[in-house]
Amino acid sequence: MAAAPNILITVENIHKRFPLPDGKGEFTVLSDVSFTVRSGEVVALLGRSGSGKSTLLRIMAGLIPPSQGQVFSNGKPLRGANHDVAMVFQSFALLPWLTVQENVELGLEARGVQRDERRQRALKAIDIVGLDGFESAYPKELSGGMKQRVGFARAFVLEPQVLFMDEPFSALDVLTSENLRGEIDDLWNAKAFPSKSILIVTHNIEEAVFLADRIVILGSNPGRIRGEVVIDLPRPHDRTTPRFASLVDYIYTVMTNPEIEVTGKVATTTPVLAVPSPYAKALPHVRVGGISGLLELIVDQPEGTDDIPRLAERLQLAVDDLLPILDAAVLLGFAEISQGDVRLTKVGQDFATTTILRSKDLFRQQALTHVPVLNSIVQTLREKRSGSMRADFFLDLWDEHFPHEEAERQFATAVDWGRYAELFEYDASEERLYLPEANPNLEKPVSLGRGEDN
Ligand SMILES: Nc1ncnc2c1ncn2[C@@H]1O[C@H](COP(=O)(O)OP(=O)(O)OP(=O)(O)O)[C@@H](O)[C@H]1O
Question: What is the pTM of this model?
Fold first, then answer.
């Protein structure tokens, strides 16, 4: 097939079926999927969990064959691994016994590149991702954000035509993922990117609208293309514009209504769905004990203000490890960050210095006003006469927005915070959440395995 000059990858009528676990028959994961990736564009594949996004990416990367249909890469039918692409994985997928440099060189070695050239190219890729000086570090010495930087360097070094990213930011805490996403976008906008196009798989709508020029929306059961939305914003895509909000709202609406036809015609005014789900906003994975410990350290500083790098140094922590705790303190309205300093708010100072009972009251007040998901859980429990709901009900809501493992972590963090604030209780043996007054069997909290030392 002769490809149009700017088409890098064509997916033509792809079907994918997997055998059923009982061996009797097959189920269809992808049905009649066709689309292209062109030079110079960022395409997002957006779909709910289970819509076959990763399967499609793996087929396009040549890691698994389609049951039917064909992929063309650079105009040639794909057979085996696709050397025109490189992949960044959600799980980083670094080899722990190799250094940063060795991890980055690995793909070049597999492609038979000579030692000196490997070294030069790896150093350049490590430099691009801002890890200069960490060449001899091992993965275990790196924070999550730094590990994913190595993941990017390992893909960049191959100078692929198309960079594939499979949920690259979703295993990182909120602030780290925000930073890295911003840096990747800057690199692309500066036309300094080591590939001609990007294909990103995500179920995060805002991420897709922020990064992509075009969003291909997948439906589920079986996975199929529902339509696409062109992101007609100047780069970088400014989240604060009404047009950004309209695009996000339009996509929320089609994602939550499987029956709606995706026309891609997005009205500029009146967002269709003004309030995003409270379950879509990630909680930083920090225990209440961690937040109060940090606030106690900061409150002792002059004017309740501390310099973040200096604080990290005093605590012998990487700044990346400190950030989720600061993130939580800011989310709860206990602290404010500006120009590298963290300053406690009035309520943050009270929280850090008061008695345990009063601190619970303050935490409850801040959680209910600043953390919509905790408020939503309490409201849901209040709707029930029994004051109790199965944990699965809430997990399903998080599953809409996060991979399942992350949904479970979000649940565990919400339980930790909700318990401390005495907003609700979790009975692990029953797998149920209760309003504090609602469970006669729960004399004392049942541990989630996260400790009770708040
Ligand atoms: N090798 C396999 N054998 C059998 N079933 C599979 C295999 N790989 C994926 N599936 C199934 O195909 C479906 C789609 O999976 P896939 O991981 O592609 O979805 P996804 O949209 O990427 O989901 P998520 O966002 O949760 O990662 C799921 O039901 C999954 O269980």
Answer: 0.63
